[in-house]
Design goal:
Strand 9 (262-272), helix 9 and strand 10 form a beta-alpha-beta unit. With 499 residues, the chain is α/β, with parallel strands linked by helices. It has helices spanning 31-39, 43-49, 91-105, 121-135, 164-189, 197-211, 220-226, 229-235, 292-307, 352-365, 380-385, 397-410, 421-424, 444-453, 488-497, and strands at 2-6, 17-22, 60-64, 75-80, 110-114, 154-158, 214-218, 243-249, 262-272, 313-322, 333-336, 342-345, 370-375, 390-394, 414-416, 434-435, 460-465, 471-472, 482-483. The protein binds ligand BES, magnesium ion and zinc ion. Ligand BES binds next to loops.
Length: 499
């Protein structure tokens, strides 16, 4: 897949099709729409006049015309972007993706996009390339026939009067981020017999090599030695040994304040049966995506390694399988975590928090001063926020605000839920320091967060519950159904802005 930028008029683009963003209720009476209308013999004004196309978000109209003069294209795709005031730089990613998927289905091999965004050239190009690259990801890796073989090979971004170097830089960066998101999605889509913790570790090592990261894998013996009794209590019922994957990005010259270190920590449950607190059979297959938090850390660290920001980042993936077995943890077992706290395990299906407990404590021991963990932690967050918003909770309001703000800029939605002493009371145990569940049915997502908080010492910390947003049940105009690589763009944005 190739991307290219053009700073002249769209007529210079040597492509099969043109795609242009059109605002709601816009007429073809001026500017580039007028030029395109002329090129197509007035078809644009006629589809608008006949109300065949109104410019609503994701509305499309395909116009075929006889190629004229310099223009090689014989197809024009109008793609609605809604109200001009709602059209952000991040929206360009969806427009580019929706146009790519639409044209790909019609066997178009190359097209030029006129994004018509007011954003900075570099940002517009970055978003466009990310949308182009992520829109072509499909779930058909394991099909032997009926695979999707159609691809758009060349994407041209047309910004008349733009800066060629900024556009080129943005396209490169967008491609790195898009490819990294596709790596995340590929991991989340792997079946659990293929992607067990050992394989997750192997792929992390290969990725680290490619992206210039350091990678260390802690095995169970090492974790035992470190006192990670909480994480190990989940792994003990599985034939698959747990791995703690530690990725380090270190810039050549750091601009970070001395001693400051951001850590990204991901839940990597490669399959969640629930353990002895076994889940019902129906829908259990979905639990292969219970490693999506870890996969997002993988993708974000890959992008960071290749983009080379001037601040260090630590990435930690707790890769564990949760199975029932003769040796498995029982509800009522008590274990001791790495930070010395004792935990009464009352439900072995609340395992994500158990592995993150030791993973965040380890991150802080490695020097992290700011920790963002991400996890498909609770079914409750799906009830609360659906697949629209990721829940964010944390002990530092500035960090929570930073995530929400970076999410807006990156095109991802976050919604804050509260934490606090009243909620923390809910995990007091009668016989140990804490228990891993709270009062029945109450504030499930918050209880998960305040449990993890018990293992954060001095660091600023935020928790992202991505159970609702890591997987798309339906195809979208810009994206195949399935894994979304949620949080990757937000985290990359956060790192870039902290330079
Ligand atoms: N992996 C699940 C959370 C989940 C559920 C993600 C549904 C996606 C869809 C997690 O390990 C879990 O089982 N959580 C329990 C916690 C409960 C036992 C306190 C839940 O949400 O029911
Ligand atoms: Mg569970
Ligand atoms: Zn789980």
């Amino acid at each position: 897949m190739k991307t290219q930028a053009i700073t002249a008029n769209f007529q210079e683009a040597n492509v099969d099709a043109l795609a242009v963003a059109v605002f709601k209720d816009e007429k073809a009476s001026s500017g580039v729409l007028k030029d395109l209308d002329k090129l197509t013999g007035g078809i644009i004004s006629s589809v608008i006049k006949n109300e065949d196309f109104k410019g609503e978000v994701n509305e499309t109209a395909l116009v075929r015309f006889a190629a004229k003069g310099k223009v090689k294209a014989s197809m024009l795709l109008l793609i609605g972007v809604g109200d001009k005031t709602d059209y952000t730089t991040a929206s360009v990613s969806n427009v580019a993706g929706a146009a790519t998927r639409f044209l790909r289905k019609r066997n178009v091999k190359s097209f030029a996009l006129l994004p018509r965004s007011d954003g900075e050239d570099r940002d517009v190009a970055q978003n466009a390339a990310t949308g182009f690259v992520t829109s072509q990801f499909e779930l058909d890796k394991y099909r032997t026939k009926d695979k999707n073989t159609k691809t758009v090979d060349t994407f041209v971004l047309c910004v008349e009067g733009g800066s060629a170097s900024a556009l080129k830089d943005g396209l490169n960066r967008g491609q790195i981020i898009g490819d990294s998101m596709n790596h995340t999605r590929e991991l989340a889509n792997e079946p659990p017999n293929v992607l067990h913790p050992t394989e997750f570790a192997k792929r992390s090592q290969a990725m680290a090599k490619e992206a210039g990261l350091k990678c260390e894998i802690l095995d169970e013996a090492k974790m035992e030695k470190l006192g990670m009794g909480s994480l190990m209590s989940v792994s003990i019922g599985s034939e698959q040994p747990a791995k703690l994957i530690v990725l380090r990005y270190e810039p050549k010259k750091s601009t970070a304040k001395k001693g400051e270190l951001l850590a990204l920590v991901g839940k990597g449950i490669t399959f969640d049966t629930g353990g002895i607190s076994l889940k019902p059979g129906e829908g259990m297959d979905a639990m292969k995506y219970d490693m999506s938090g870890g996969a997002s850390v993988f993708g974000a660290m890959r992008a960071i390694g290749l983009l080379k920001p001037s601040v260090p980042v630590l990435g930690i993936i707790a890769a564990v399988e949760n199975m029932p077995d003769g040796k498995a943890t029982r509800p009522s077992d008590i274990v001791t975590a790495m930070n010395g706290k004792t935990i009464e395990i009352l439900n072995t299906d609340a395992e994500g928090r158990l592995i993150l407990a030791d993973a965040v404590a380890y991150a802080e021991k490695q020097g992290a001063t700011k920790i963002v963990d991400m996890a498909t932690l609770t079914g409750a967050v799906i009830i609360a926020l659906g697949d629209v918003n990721t829940a964010v909770l944390g002990n530092d309001q500035d960090l929570v605000n930073e995530i929400i703000e970076c999410g807006k800029e990156a095109g991802e939605n976050y919604w804050q839920l509260p934490i606090g002493r009243e909620y923390s009371k809910g995990i007091k145990s009668d016989i140990a320091d804490i228990k891993n569940i709270g009062p029945a049915r109450k504030a499930g997502t918050i209880i998960g967060a305040v449990f993890i908080q018990e293992f954060v010492d001095k660091a600023k910390w935020a928790h992202l519950d991505i159970a609702g947003t890591a997987w798309n049940d339906n195809e979208k105009p810009h994206q195949a159904k399935g894994p979304t690589a949620v949080a990757v763009r937000t985290l990359v944005k956060m790192v870039e802005k902290s330079q």
